[in-house]
Amino acid sequence: MTVLADAPARIDTSTTSTDGASELIALMAALPVGHPDRAALRDRAIEAWLPLARHLSNRYANRGEPRDDLYQVAVVGLIKAIDRFEPERGIDFAGFAVPTVVGELKRHFRDKTWSVRVPRRLQELRLAITGANNTLSHTLGRSPTVADIAGHLGISEDEVIEGLEGARAYNSTSLSTPIADNGTELGETLGGEDDGFAVAEMRIALGPALASLDEREQKIVSLRFYGNLTQTQIAEQVGISQMHVSRLLTKALAKLRLQLDGATA
Q1: pLDDT tens-digit profile of 28-70?
Q2: How far is residue 75's CA from residue 72's CA, in Å, rounded to a whole number?
Q3: Domain range list for the chain
């Protein structure tokens, strides 16, 4: 006769008491790994302890993470607790499961919810500073200073400041966030690349570059780009062939390009 035969025929997991849920853990733990009945007991134990996972995940709600996601993280922690529980150590399952699930939730916040990835050292430093701030605020009766936190944690003030700066990466604001009643979004207030500066710089450099051309080259360039004349029209005004205008224009533009590249390098 298997252990399952000795177990309660059916446990209503929606109303399972702590004693009943603990009994499932004990029954499962009594079976060796690989026993054909162990998997079924494991599933029933997980289901029986889901209210604990729900309760613990709710404690971390309203911190920027969806409740369903937190619940799933808590369930993962619960499963780890069930798989790792060793009753022979003399600790009841609830006493082992709670810190395991809470630890899983804290790791989720530490590893998954930072808007900008920062080194693990800074993530852990932020948590330590937050804990020190809460403790010192209570014991000192005021907000602790950087020096207070540094002394409490046994680190330098520069490290505290570094941790506080790193904490700024924990949250970010969407560029789609409305910032006015008319529907203006944050992204609309950000500046873009302004080509006007490059144009202004080019115009400043263009004067000296044109001065480097001889008189006829300057005239041809001016008629072509400021007067919008064709090469044939320029040839008529200057008194040379259109082919000659083309060669001179090409030569003048090469000189200008060389001068401008040097001016803006």
Answers
A1: 877 877 788 888 888 888 998 999 999 999 988 877 678 888 9
A2: 5
A3: 3-112, 120-189, 195-264
